[in-house]
Amino acid sequence: MTENLYLSGNFAPVEGERSDTALRVSGKIPRELEGMLLRIGPNPVAPDPARYHWFTGNGMVHGVRLRGGRAEWYRRRYVRDDEVVAAMGWPPVPGPRRENELGGGNANTNVIRHAGKLYAIVEAGNLPVELDADLETVGRSDFGGTLPGGFSAHPKRDPVSGELWAAVYSPFADSIQMVVVGTNGRVRRHVDVPVPGRPMVHDCAITERYFVLLDLPVVFVPEALEAGGMPYQWKPEYGARVGLLPREGQAADVVWCEVEPCYVFHPMNAYDTPDGRVVLDVVRHPRMFATDMHGPNEGAPTLERWTVDPKQRRVKEQRLDERGQEFPRHDERLVGRPYRYGYTAGFAEGVALGGLIKHDLRDGKIELHHEGPARHFMEPVFVPASADADEDDGYVMAFNYDASSDRSDVVILHAQDFTAEPVATIHLPTRVPYGFHGNWVPDAS
Ligand SMILES: [Fe+2]
Questions:
Q1: Which of 11, 97, 343, 418 counts the most CB atoms within 10 A of its CB?
Q2: Ligand 1 centroid, distance to 186 Cα (angstroms)
Q3: How far is the CA of 2 from the centre of ligand 1 (A)?
Q4: pLDDT tens column, 197-221
Q5: Nearest residue to 197 via CA among 228, 156, 235
């Protein structure tokens, strides 16, 4: 058989947990960066090369702690699920369980802090897993018994209210569930929105008026699950649409607007226009899981602007950048509000990650940060220089992988000097496998 892409190169898992101090640093770490840069991805303990898919590997969280201009430590820890604790001989993970759980409590896709707690989170039905400040697993959480089903890997935090808004789905439900988690860490409300099938709903967006749903043609195929393969597949006949649910509305209030069939894992951001439309910026894949179940090679994902007109029920689709790119981020003090700058990870060639891309969406200007063909950047995380700094006045932080040394660094750029040498590079003594997402968790939150 051919080699499994997701078990080779920097997709391959690293061996065991580790903790390192006295990290080597080039340049100067800004003293205002006090906290942890966290990142999570799959690190399978016992993958079957014939079946393993990147999306299903056991979670591992990687963290770098910054304080007083120093990099105090790098740590990596498994997010403990049934398979991990069985393989390692560790005690079972405490906490509630879901009936329709996949993968024995696996949580591998994002890591966030909310209401004072750290969580590893994932989509498709599994519960969040709480972590402590040293990244050790505490237990599964259903937000104090208030979560009606599973959760999502991509909740959006409203910068004014502090609430989390998430689109939750499961292979066992013909609906997409909007879940709102209050600043007290408990679910305030949820709405089940019926849809014609069982789509994969990786992410969502919010504006000041709307919760934005994506109902796209990657849908659950039960036979594929039974065969042990990727259970979601490309079905363009399902159609593709964006739904606008008024934030405090009900399922019947959703206005659906069709788009060309495609797949979107990640919106960059969304906002309302004064004339009642919604601007939704997305990374658009021309298709997904159509022919290639063991590689992301289904055509280059590009940055697009969708302008959704709920009165006409029409979407104007406009390409902003032809380059292959993913993992869009922006200044999250502007979630759901008009914004100007976004940051993505570029694909150097085909599916390989490359440099970072900065978008000035107002003036249509694009800047690239490259450090040569061997250095592959993962998701860029924006951190403002201070609470009241202007948009884009701050740092873009990213883990990378250097293929020439088979190690990773954390690179800190000043966002307003994007193409320059990094402000600081923290050299890690190990590689960090290509994974999914992460966040900056400041001490003061
Ligand atoms: Fe994602």
A1: 343
A2: 23
A3: 27
A4: 999 999 999 999 999 999 999 999 9
A5: 235
Torsion from C-alpha of 330, 335, 336, 341, nearest 10 degrees: -20
**How many whole angstroms from 275 Cα to the centroid of ligand 1?**
31
56-74 b/e with 16+ CB inside 10 Å = b?
A: bbbbbbbbbbbeeeebebb
Q: Can you point out the beta strands (E) in 115-262?
A: 117-121, 129-131, 137-140, 156-157, 164-168, 175-181, 187-194, 205-206, 210-215, 218-220, 232-234, 241-246, 255-258
Closest CA to 199 of 241, 245, 165, 164: 241
* Confidence label for 276 from pLDDT (cuts 50, 70 and 90): very high
| Ligand 1 centroid distance, CA of 437 (Å) | 6
Query: What is the 203 CA–ligand 1 centroid distance (Å)?
Result: 7
Q: What pLDDT is attached to residue 5?
A: 85
Q: What separation in Å is there between the alpha carbon of 400 and the centre of ligand 1?
A: 17
Written as one letter, the residue type at 147 is L
Work out the average pLDDT over 243-262: 98
Q: How far is the CA of 110 from the centre of ligand 1 (A)?
A: 7
pLDDT grade for 24, boundaries at 50, 70 and 90: very high
Q: The tokens of 5 are what?
A: 């892409």
* Cα 436 to ligand 1 centroid, rounded to whole Å: 6
Å from CA of 415 to ligand 1 middle: 22
| Cα–Cα distance measured from residue 368 to residue 358, given in angstroms and rounded to the nearest whole number | 6
Distance CA 351, CA 331 (A): 26
Give the pLDDT band (50/70/90) at residue 445: low
pLDDT classification of 349: cutoffs 50, 70, 90: low
Comparing C-alpha atoms, which of 48, 9, 38 is closest to residue 227?
A: 48
Res 1: pLDDT: 44
Residue 348 has φ and ψ, to the nearest 5°, of -65, -45
Q: Is the predicted pLDDT of residue 246 greater than 70, yes or no?
A: yes
Q: What is the pTM for the complete model shown?
A: 0.96
CA-CA-CA-CA torsion for 292, 294, 298, 301, nearest 10 degrees? 160
Q: How far is the CA of 267 from the centre of ligand 1 (A)?
A: 9
Between the CA of 6 and the centroid of ligand 1 the distance, in Å, is 17
* Dihedrals phi, psi of 11, to nearest 5 degrees: -80, -25
CA 247 to centroid of ligand 1, rounded, Å = 22
Evaluate whether 280 touches 306 at the Cβ level (below 8 Å): yes
